[in-house]
Amino acid sequence: DAKTTQPPSMDCAEGRAANLPCNHSTISGNEYVYWYRQIHSQGPQYIIHGLKNNETNEMASLIITEDRKSSTLILPHATLRDTAVYYCIVRVEGSARQLTFGSGTQLTVLP
Amino acid sequence: GAVVSQHPSRVICKSGTSVKIECRSLDFQATTMFWYRQFPKKSLMLMATSNEGSKATYEQGVEKDKFLINHASLTLSTLTVTSAHPEDSSFYICSARDGRNTEAFFGQGTRLTVV
Fold first, then answer.
1. pLDDT digit string, tens, across residues B66-103
2. Which chain A residue has its CA at the smallest distance from B41's CA?
3. Which of B8, B4, B2 is nearest to B95 (CA)?
């Protein structure tokens, strides 16, 4: 799986959009971008994934650049409960292999 | 999304004893489950891959005789930490995949403290 690079930490004001970047410059053509988050002392939670088109669901939006070398996870209206470590993972869709977690970004939503 | 239940959420045990952690897929069948370990302020590290009806595959550096994994059914995998020592204290997390979906689902995690 391609390696990803994320900033170690970010702050965001409550109610504002949180934009979390991820670089994956070695991504292959059949690899998807997945985002998970881990709230303190809980297991990771799936957020969203995409290949090349922008994706949106009830939790977040995923913007992938045209060259697919980077992406941004957007939480449109961050709440205090969104404080967590956010992991960007690149992998082949449907792969039976395990998820490989990097360091992630610690997002702190401030009141 | 699919639900993965992990039990117990917290356990404290004495050094030298064994602890069993259960991971259940509640509404889907999981042919493969993964066990991760996480130290404070660190990322998740894969310990082993558990396949139903066969022996688990352990990552390099993980002692298979110390961390016993059993995956006897399509909905249950167990991790037993044998002869636990204080350095085994950690957050253990299981994950299961639903063959119909592409994302993995995680248990709530188990905080093990060995005293």
1. 999 998 888 999 999 999 999 999 999 999 987 666 67
2. A103
3. B4
